[in-house]
Design a protein that fits this description.
268 residues, 9-stranded mixed β-sheet, 20% strand, single chain, Rossmann fold, alpha/beta, two-stranded parallel ribbon
């Protein structure tokens, strides 16, 4: 089992397939296993790397470690370890913090970026009223009280109960992690001004489940419009975890996007 030893953490990762590098960064409710419906598909054409962020089992973090503020540095170390020079990044929710920041640091190395149900660290002025309405609705808390994971959503729980149960099982592997503190930290890190996106010419696909109650789909659309080379792909009858709930549609969208980007510039 491959491990990457860092000063305050130990990172678990897996690499599958051969070809151009495609790296997946999971959300707050996941780990490297979250991508079980993507790796068999994309490893036919790419060298796929999945990992568990520090603190998310089986990865570890020392007590009092930096948490999310180290995520981007961790990705940098991981890509150096696997020898990835040019990458395609797929980020889900929390993974958007990791991948957007890494892309802004290294725009010449990112062939394509997929932001799934996330706006990452972006602080767009149009977000405030949308987030205020989201908080006032209190829908996440209501679902938790009914033992429905908000990142899975009410539709997944009703229509695909086995999948919803699997989502909970993966989520609970990080039971020792203080996710409330991590959520607050991620909120504090949402400070990247919209002007920072102006020079980012990397192709970016922004996917949003139309029934997402965690990251409002409208904010994902706004982000896509703020990116010079961004596009917005809403997915109906899907919540916050399109990759998990509607894997076939997610794989189709991402596959077509990557194929288009690769065909324009040639694979390296």
């Amino acid at each position: 089992m491959p491990w990457l030893d860092l000063p305050s953490a130990r990172l678990y990762y897996e690499t599958t397939g051969e070809g151009p590098d495609l790296v997946f960064a999971h959300g707050l409710g996941g780990n490297h296993m979250s991508w079980w419906q993507q790796i068999p598909e994309f490893s036919k054409r790419y060298r796929c790397t999945t990992f568990a962020h520090r603190g998310f089992a089986p990865s570890t973090q020392a007590e009092g470690g930096p948490g999310a503020t180290a995520f981007t540095d961790d990705l940098d170390a991981l890509l150096d370890t696997i020898g990835a020079q040019e990458v395609r990044l797929v980020a889900q929710s929390m993974g958007g913090w990791t991948c957007l920041e890494w892309t802004l640091r290294n725009p010449g190395r990112v062939k394509a970026l997929v932001m799934c149900d996330t706006t990452g660290t972006l602080a767009h002025p149009d977000f405030a009223p949308i987030w205020a309405a989201q908080m006032a609705a209190g829908r996440e808390r209501s679902l938790f009280e009914r033992h429905i994971h908000p990142a899975a959503g009410e539709r997944m729980a009703a229509e695909q109960p086995e999948l919803h149960h699997l989502y909970w099982l993966i989520n609970d592997l990080a039971s020792g992690l203080d996710k409330d503190s991590l959520r607050r930290q991620l909120g504090e890190m949402r400070a990247r001004p919209v002007e920072a996106l102006a020079a980012l010419t990397t192709p970016v696909l922004c996917i949003a489940g139309e029934e997402d109650i965690v990251i409002p789909p409208e904010t994902v659309r706004i982000m896509a419009e703020a990116l010079p080379n961004g596009r917005f792909a809403p997915v109906p009858r899907a919540g916050h975890s399109v990759y998990f709930e509607r894997a076939g549609e997610f794989n189709r969208l991402v596959g077509a996007f990557l194929e288009e980007v690769d065909s324009l510039g040639g694979r390296k």
